[in-house]
Design a protein that fits this description.
six-stranded mixed sheet; Immunoglobulin-like; 7 helices; 2 domains; 28% helix; Rossmann fold; 329 residues; 17 strands; alpha/beta
């Protein structure tokens, strides 16, 4: 009987966890406004945002690069961390991203507060700050994560931006940095981990796992780079987004950028109600849907709105609208 009750308790806990994950998935239409009316024949390309990290889409990115400058990083370690950090900066959407540089050894300090990557002089200053780092002292990775969390939740953070940090280290540390990563995740921040050559794999893997992020190494940044630009994942935990067009056609797995933004192919408004349904899924299969209704009325077609062809957040190179073949329900 006790075993049976324990099993029921475990099942109940599982349901609660699943319910929480489900609540985190969101999808919203950004433009045009729901209920808008257009003349029949008007070309409209609706845009939307999806997320599975408890926020509603993302209009940009706040990123903290947390770089290990302890003595054990001397020589090739710090050189690899710098090169990796600069490569990530160069992979980011320039117009909608702010970057902070946090260094840590036995304690942490903020080398560069959250700074927009534009204009180009800002980006150059961020890269200069990375190149100025040198190794020396003890190691406490947790202090760097805590300092980065303060930066990403402080006055320099931009409301509506996705919050992410990338920890670059050899994984040699006092304390249990995975605990700080878990606290950051609880504050709505995703923590990724990049290990330099010879790093402690278990430590860096634990940081990423506790922070809800990706673990990789400095010699192969392709995973993180494609997450940032949206070609191989995203920063908001979305597995895919499907769109049902007014004529019943389904666009399976429409392209999204690294922040979960998507844009539909131009749709020619028809007479009456034009309904678009977006359904977003996370990796566990949880989903959320949103309905956009546009009304078509008789009259001369309006000039297409240029704004509907601009994707918030950038990152859809060539406006590749499909990643999988279009299917018809």
């Amino acid at each position: 009987m006790k075993k049976f009750l324990l099993l029921l308790a475990m099942l109940a806990a599982t349901c609660l966890i699943s319910g929480t994950a489900f609540a985190d998935v969101s999808v919203d239409w950004v433009s045009p406004a729901d209920g808008s009316t257009y003349a029949v024949g008007t070309s409209v390309a609706p845009t939307g945002q999806a997320s599975a990290v408890g926020t509603t889409g993302g209009t940009g990115l706040d990123l903290a690069l947390v770089i290990d400058t302890s003595g054990s990083m001397g020589g090739s370690g710090i050189a690899s961390a710098k090169a990796a950090a600069i490569a990530l900066v160069n992979a980011l959407p320039q117009a909608t991203t702010s970057v902070a540089i946090i260094r840590f050894s036995s304690s942490a300090s903020t080398v560069r507060t959250l700074t927009p990557l534009t204009p180009v002089t800002n980006k150059a200053a961020i890269i200069t700050a990375i190149n100025s780092l040198h190794a020396g002292g003890g190691t406490y990775i947790g202090s760097g994560i805590t300092a980065a969390q303060a930066q990403l939740t402080g006055s320099n953070a931009t409301s509506g931006h996705v919050k992410t940090m990338v920890v670059l280290s050899d994984g040699v540390s006092s304390g249990t940095p995975a605990n700080q990563a878990a606290l950051a995740k609880g504050a709505g921040i995703t923590v990724h981990a990049v290990g330099v050559p010879g790093h402690n794999i278990a430590q860096m893997t634990a940081i990423a796992a506790s922070g809800g992020g990706v673990y990789t190494n400095a010699n192969d940044l392709s995973t993180l780079e494609t997450i940032f630009n949206g070609t191989g994942g995203n920063l908001v935990g979305i597995d895919h987004v499907d769109i049902v067009l007014p004529d019943g056609t389904t666009i399976s797995d429409i392209a999204i950028d690294g922040l979960g933004n998507f844009i539909l192919p131009a749709w020619i408004i028809e007479l009456g109600t034009n309904e678009f349904t977006a359904t977003a899924y996370d990796s566990a299969g949880n989903s959320a849907s949103a309905l956009l209704t546009l009304n078509g009325q008789a009259g001369n077609p309006a000039v297409p709105e240029p704004s509907t062809f601009i994707l918030l957040g950038g990152g859809l190179a060539g406006l590749a609208f499909y990643r999988r073949k279009k299917s018809v329900k």
